[in-house]
Structures are given as C-alpha cells and as structure tokens.
Amino acid sequence: MAIKLSDHFTYRRLIRFILPSVLMMIFTSVYSVVDGFFVSNFAGKTPFAAVNLIFPFLMVLATVGFMFGTGGTAIVAKTFGEGDPARANRYFSLFVYTSFILGAVFAVLGFIFIRPISELLGAEGELLECCVTYGRIILTAIPFYVLQLLFQSFFVTAEMPKMGLIVTISSGVTNMVLDAVLVILLPQEYKLMGAATATAMSQVVGGGVPLIYFFRKNKSILRLGRTNLDLRAIGKAFTNGSSEFMSNVSMNIVGMLYNIQLMEYAGENGVAAYGVMMYVSFIFAAAFIGYSIGTAPIIGYHDGAKNHSELQGILKKSLKIIGIAGIAMVILGEIFAYPLSLIFVGYDAKLLTLTASGFRIFVLSFPFMGYAIFGSGFFTALNDGMTSAIISFLRTLVFQIAAVLLLPLILGIDGIWYSIIVAEFMAVVLSGVFLVVKKKKYMYW
Q: How far apart are the first and last CA of the chain?
C-alpha cells in the first residue's frame, strides 16, 4: 500500500518512506566512487588529482538544481497540505523550467572560464590540461545534472520515492558500464576523456528520464505543464533552498581551499588522499542527505496542514534515528579505513598511509554531520530559509574555513582532517540553539 504525505508516521512507516531516498543518495555516491576508482587505477594519479581539483567547481554550478529541489519542495508540499494541487503543480513546473535555463547559462560560462579557474586552483602543466579536458566534457551535461539534483527531491514530493531510486540506479549503471568500457579499453591518453564522457552520459539519463516522466501522464501527484513567471515564488524557493545552495557551494569552495592547503602541505599526494576521503565520505553523508530529502515533504505537508503533533513525532524520531546511524558509521569507517584506501591508492605506499590515517580522523565527524544536515533541512522544510541558511553558511563556510586555516598551523596536515570535526560539532551546537529558540513558532516540540 502506497504511503502518502498525509499519513501518520510510525518508525516503521517513516523508514519505509525515506529508505528509497537514502538508497538513492547512497547509490549516487557509490557510482561517483566507482568513477574515482577507474580514474585513479587506470588513468593515473595526475588525472585523478585533476578530477578532484576541478570537481568542486563543477558541483558549484550544478547546485542550483539542489537549491530549487529542496526549496521548491517545501513550497509545493506545503501547497498540497493547504489543499491546492493545481497551484502546487504550477509551482513545480516553474521550478523545473527555471532550473534548466540556469543550468544551461552556467554551462556556457563554465566552458569559457574553465582554464583560468583551473589555474586559480593551482593547476599547471599536465594537471591543468587534465582539469580543462575533464571539466569541459562534464559541462556539456550540466543542465541535465541540475535537473537530476532537482528531481531527487521532487520524486519524494510526488509520493514516488521508489521511482526516484530506479532513475538513480539507471543513471549509476550507465556511468559504471561506460566507465568500464571507455576507461579500460581506450588508449592511455583518452582514458580521462572516457571517464568524463561516462559521467556526462549518466547525468543526461538522471535528468532526462524524469523530465520525460513528468511531462507524460503519470501515477504521481505531480505533472509538468503550463505555468506563469512568478518571481515571488522563484524568490521564495531561492530563499528556502538557499541553505542547501549555500551548503553545497560552500562545501565545494571549502573543498578548493582544502586542496590548496594540501598542495602546500603534501603536494599532489595530499590532493589525491583528500579525494579518496571525499569519495568514500560521500557514501556516509549521502545517507543523511537522503534522510533529509525524504523527510522534507512530510514536514512541509504537515506544517501546511497544521498537524503539530505529527511534526513533533517526526522530529523526535529523526533525532534518534540519526544518532544511531552516526555511531554505526563511525564504527564502520574505522574498520574499513585501510581497505577502502587500498582500493583507490594501493599502488602507492606513501599515499596509502597518508589516506588511511587521515580517514580514521575524518570519520569521527559523521555523527555531528548527520545532525547538522538534518537541522538545516528541517528548517528548509518549514519554509524558514533564513534560519536554514544561517546554519549552512556557518557550518560549511565560516566554521570550516576558520578551522582549516588555523588547525594545520598547530597540528600540521592532521589539522586539516580535524578541522572537519570541529566545524561539524559547532554546526550541531548552532542547530540545537535554533531548535530551542524556534519551537514555539512552529510547535514541533
């Protein structure tokens, strides 16, 4: 029996509803990890470092999809809760069209400026050429990647989270199969181009298939159709999703800063080690992001319907689930730090040691990360974009930049890994303060 946003959510029903979103985000991260595995082991260390150096910039461009996905979901879900499905679908169509147009504009600008941006990040020589080659191929598919990120949220709002998982699996399988064919079989000088092509084609699948699905008559509560230019709605979606936008943009800007610091402290080995940690940590963080995406429409719907008791239940259950998951992730991370590092950089003993030791420190941030991600997403779902944006801005930009600049002066390269823990802990404290301050306004406690 299908679970609807208007249902009462027990632990069992809540987990059943959000599980496809969690698996969707985990699978997205897994195929990114597979992509990194092929580049590192078949294309070489320099192409792998190039991918890790330029990828944060590419993600900044695509983040507009995540912004309109999370911010638009809050508006659409609340509108459904208020009993106006026609207006909800007009909003949905508006956010999809706007995201695609912005994605196309960003792709053109990125294609033009990819070389000076790579140089700004410290790339030169072969590393620079690899950044430009990989980046330009990925940029051709950025509009579809924007849609992929957007639809990951809206499939849940459409009460079709399993369909979202199917699309994500299809996109991931496309990437993996093409990686295996293009990266392994192509001559050495074309392997990086093959990896980029595989990723770009998977993004076309991830964004194009949902576009076709929602344009056609379907079984969900959402359908693409005619809309009108509503700048107020766009502005509200931007405000709501600004926290997720800021979180992703800041995370990638900070990722660039981490790479610059690592180039200074450890050279290409440091960038490669950080790349491995990011690939693997994406899997763990994806579970929290998927949980936040999965619960957001439920929170938005019941906020619109003024079901305060249901909001209270969702919040209390979520805090318990995230706490248990965070502890389990630390244990798994400590156990598999060396084996996972070995898969990526087993060909270089010095790099392997650096990666494994750094990862064992890095995994201690997971419990704090889970609460920080959910705290920001919770306020986004309540259409309180300002509070969510403050949490995200301080968490992903201010706290991390301060930590990554100061701690290495005291602890050396280990200070870079510890800086993530410090930043996430501070974000949890901030989220807790806002939950207490805002509880009377939203009556979720």
A: 30
Give the separation between CA 141 and CA 199, rounded to whole angstroms. 9
Encode burial over 178-211: b for 16+ CB neighbours within 10 A, e otherwise.
bbeebbeebeeeebbbbbbbbbbbbbbbbbbbbb
H helices present in 39-84, as ranges: 45-81
Q: Write down the pTM of the prediction.
A: 0.72
At 348, phi and psi to the nearest 5?
Answer: -135, 105
Scan for tokens 């600004």, then name that residue: 242
The tens digit of pLDDT for each residue in 203-241 reads: 999 999 999 999 988 888 888 988 888 888 888 888 777
Give the tens place of pLDDT for each residue, 252-292: 666 667 767 666 666 666 666 676 777 677 778 888 988 98
Q: Which residues, other chains included, contact 419 with Cβ-Cβ below 8 Å and sequence gap of 6+?
A: 400, 403, 404, 406, 407, 408
Q: What CA–CA distances, in Å, run from 319 to 330, 346, 371, 391?
A: 17, 38, 7, 17
Taking 70 as the threshold, does the pLDDT of residue 128 lie above it? yes
Instruction: Give the per-residue pLDDT at 270.
Output: 67
**Amino acid (1-letter code) at residue 421:** I
Distance CA(302)–CA(444), nearest Å, equals 10
Q: What is the pLDDT of residues 396-439, one digit of tens each?
A: 778 878 887 888 788 877 787 788 888 889 989 999 899 888 88
Structure tokens at 274: 């950080």
Mean pLDDT taken over the chain: 84
Short-list 50, 58, 40, CA closest to 138: 58
Q: How far apart are CA 151 and CA 164, in angstroms?
A: 8
